[in-house]
Design a protein that fits this description.
240 residues, alpha+beta, five-stranded antiparallel sheet, 6 helices, 10 strands, 44% helix
Length: 240
């Protein structure tokens, strides 16, 4: 649990027309080689992706298991596995590791996003004990309580994917230990439906940069509006 608490912030937001996954990319050493794939967000199958917080080596084992479960189901029934069934199956394995001797629990929390024909867009969270639950918005990792407070305050059930991306930027800005957001320190992915197919897309550096610019412009506009209100109040009180 300590490893999860110290891991980079990860959160998911469920929208009407999709799901957003966002994560903090922790750059441990500037000498590390750039990796072309996502460090915190993983694709499980055509309809599901996940984000992890905790011990990365444990996460790799569990993600491999998730992919195997999904492919076995597809091979047996010729249709994608329902989201909750996949989460439940993995949580049974995680629970077994807390019960039997000679094994230790997996030190990783996982956020799952997905779509199926039964319940549409879904967001789940599971912890090392094997407990899991469905959420409208949830956060794991470092500063998760601060992120959850913002999500509770700002989340609306009718939120759209574009608004969810904007809210993600706000949460990242408030929870990351940086004065200025940058594309190198953030990872973001969206899960949507296009022409009857699920599309999982990890946002590029350029797309992230554009979102950061838009968010910063919003903050600037809000601050200018506050300043105008203050000057109006002060001028009206002085005229009295």
């Amino acid at each position: 649990m300590e490893a999860i608490g110290l891991a980079g912030t990860c959160f998911g937001i469920l929208a009407e027309d999709g799901v957003v996954l966002a994560a903090e990319r922790k750059i441990t050493n500037k000498l590390l080689d750039e990796i072309p794939f996502s460090d915190k967000i993983y694709k499980i199958n055509e309809n599901m992706a996940c984000s992890v917080a905790g011990i990365t080596s444990d996460a790799n084992v569990l993600i491999n298991e998730l992919r195997l479960i999904a492919q076995r189901y597809l091979l047996s029934y010729q249709e994608p596995i329902p989201c909750e069934q996949l989460v439940s199956h993995l949580c049974d394995i995680k629970q077994a590791y807390t019960q039997f001797g000679g094994k230790r629990p997996f030190g990783v929390s996982i956020l799952y996003v997905g779509w199926d024909r039964h319940y549409g867009f879904q967001l789940y969270h599971s912890d090392p004990s094997g407990n899991y639950g469905g959420w409208k918005a949830n956060c794991i990792g470092n500063n998760n309580s601060a992120a959850m407070a913002i999500l509770k305050q700002e989340y609306k059930p009718e939120i759209k994917i574009k608004e969810a991306l904007s809210l993600s930027m706000k949460v990242l800005h408030k929870t990351l230990d940086v004065s200025k957001l940058s594309a190198e320190k953030v990872e973001m992915a969206t899960l949507t439906r296009v022409n009857g197919k699920t599309v999982i897309s990890v946002l590029s550096s350029d797309e992230l940069g554009k979102l950061i610019e838009e968010y910063e412009a919003e903050i600037k506009a809000a601050e200018e509006a506050k300043e105008k209100e203050k000057s109006k109040k002060s001028s009206s009180s002085s005229s009295k």
